[in-house]
Design brief:
Blueprint (H helix, E strand, L loop, with lengths): L1 E6 L6 E5 L2 E5 L5 H9 L9 H13 L13 H16 L7 H16 L1 H6 L1
Antiparallel strand pairs: 1-2, 2-3
Length: 121
Amino acid sequence: MFLVKINNQLDGSRVLEICGQAFIAEADDHSIDRAIELAGCWEPYQVTYARVVHLRNWIRENEEYQVSLVDIYDMVGCKRFVDKVINAAFVDLGGRYREGFLARMRENERIFFEEDFMDTV
């Protein structure tokens, strides 16, 4: 499922293979490592490139909000974590950003739970 293809000795970047697709991780990108670690708790059929990268993006976003990443044991726990980060990102923005908040919540639901989406990844 996950494979390091190339380590760049000059800048520390890595080319990772995630579910057959390449992902370039910069030297300081520890979010992808944490996302891969968490995806290791999922059932194998649940692991997709889109889910891992989506989780990575929200782990990185969470650096500002510090939502706890402990006690996550499955894919549903990861989805709930992302929901909490989205809530933290929008809590102080007020109602005028409600559509952006709802769009991100829908995207999170789609990525983690829609079978049709899983089949296209």
